[in-house]
Write a structure and sequence with these properties.
- By secondary structure, the protein is α/β, with parallel strands linked by helices.
- The chain has a single domain, classed as Rossmann fold (3-Layer(aba) Sandwich).
- The chain is built from 12 helices and 9 strands.
- The strands form 3 sheets. The protein has a 5-stranded mixed β-sheet. Strands 5-8 form a two-stranded parallel ribbon.
- Helix 2 crosses helix 11.
- The longest helix has 24 residues.
- The protein is globular, with a radius of gyration of 19 Å.
- It holds the Pfam family Lipase_GDSL.
- InterPro entries: GDSL (IPR001087), GDSL_esterase/lipase (IPR051238), SGNH_hydro_sf (IPR036514), SGNH_plant_lipase-like (IPR035669).
- It is found in: Secreted.
- Belongs to the 'GDSL' lipolytic enzyme family.
Length: 351
């Protein structure tokens, strides 16, 4: 917690009287960053009920954690007074400061997460962003003004985790019988590359990409695929490491070919595996899971653990606010060189 306090103090000094370091912040991704976009969907991937939000000032909002998610904390560190609104409710002039498109159970691949119900895939999130840009052009009056604004914004994208636990390693999909883990990582990176180039074509110039965290150590994966007493499922983590390695290569390629933009890598895998806070429980959920007929989510209205900062996982797959603080803080200002590549969010904002 001391680390976040230090970062927030640094942020307030940089912001000079409450002006954010960038004019706007756009968020794409999965349930790790969703702040309410799935609430109105017919889907099991919803978190708008207690005990979700038990430590959030507005209670359950659709955030898949007990308090703030990683995107919320990054918004604070960037100096925004308010959290970035979800696309589902973003209205009027508020969109000029950014929109959150993240959707629980979504993935790079369109079919990812379909067994849980409705969601907004990465492709759909890009279409939603295109709609937002049209609204921004209408507000500002011309394309040039909109492009100038969009080029100064920070964009974070955290996608790919569900393409593994909600597709490749899920019994509801044939993907694992079709592709090796090596080939699947290649296919994901190829599709992700096209999506990121689309984001660039929509005006994004400061883009931070979260790697996939070590899902092989999450309670849900251990329950589904682990042996008795295992702390992690190695094959899942190996698959994720292949994807993350491909993502770093993609970032190098994007920075080489789009020289008026900067793409960076946020190493959530490394950060999670080298915690700066002494979590006592690293693969046990804080809440009682089984909600929405899944093995992942909290059972509605059940009382969660009291010592939430001791737990890395809130439910069977989503981090606690304490873990989100760690990931967001070390993504904003890296604590060691492996946390981010080639620079951190703080330096990206200054470009």
């Amino acid at each position: 917690m001391w680390y976040l306090v230090t970062l927030l103090s640094l942020s307030s000094l940089v912001n000079g009287g409450g002006v954010p370091q960038v004019p706007c912040y756009f968020i794409f991704g999965s349930s790790l960053y969703d702040n309410g976009n799935n609430n109105a969907f017919v889907t099991a991937a919803r978190a708008n009920y207690p005990p979700y939000g038990i430590d959030f000032r507005r209670g359950p909002t659709g955030r898949f954690t007990n308090g703030r998610n990683t995107a919320d904390i990054i918004a604070e560190l960037l100096g925004f007074d308010n959290y970035i609104p979800p696309f589902a409710s973003a209205r009027g002039q508020y969109i000029l400061k950014g929109v959150n498109y993240a959707s629980g159970s979504s993935g790079i691949r369109d079919e990812t997460g379909q067994h849980l119900g409705a969601r907004m895939s990465m492709n759909q999130q890009l279409l939603n962003h295109q709609s937002t840009i049209s609204r921004i052009v209408s507000i500002l009056g011309d394309n040039e003004s909109a492009s100038k604004l969009l080029s100064k914004c920070i964009y974070t994208v955290g996608i790919g985790n569900n393409d593994y636990i909600g597709n490749y390693f899920s019994r509801f999909y044939p993907t694992r019988s079709i592709y090796t883990i090596e080939r699947y990582a290649e296919i994901l990176i190829q599709q992700y590359s096209q999506q990121l180039k689309t984001l660039y074509n929509y005006g994004a110039r400061k883009v931070a990409l979260f790697g996939v965290p070590p899902l092989g150590c999450s309670p849900i994966v251990i329950a589904m695929l682990g042996a008795n007493g295992s702390l992690c499922v190695d094959i899942v983590n190996k698959a994720i490491q292949l994807f993350n390695a491909g993502l770093i290569q993609l970032i190098d390629e994007l920075n080489k070919n789009q020289q008026d933009a900067k793409f960076i890598y946020l190493n959530s895998y490394h950060i999670t595996m080298t915690p700066t806070t002494g979590f006592k429980f690293t693969n046990t959920p804080c809440c009682e899971v089984g909600g929405n007929n899944t093995l992942m989510l909290c059972i509605p209205f059940r009382t969660p653990c009291q010592n939430r900062s001791d737990y890395m996982y809130w439910d069977a797959v989503h981090p606690t606010e304490a873990a989100n603080v760690m990931v967001a803080g070390r993504s904003y200002v890296n604590l060691d060189p492996s946390d981010t590549y080639p620079i951190d969010i703080h330096r990206l904002a200054q470009l």
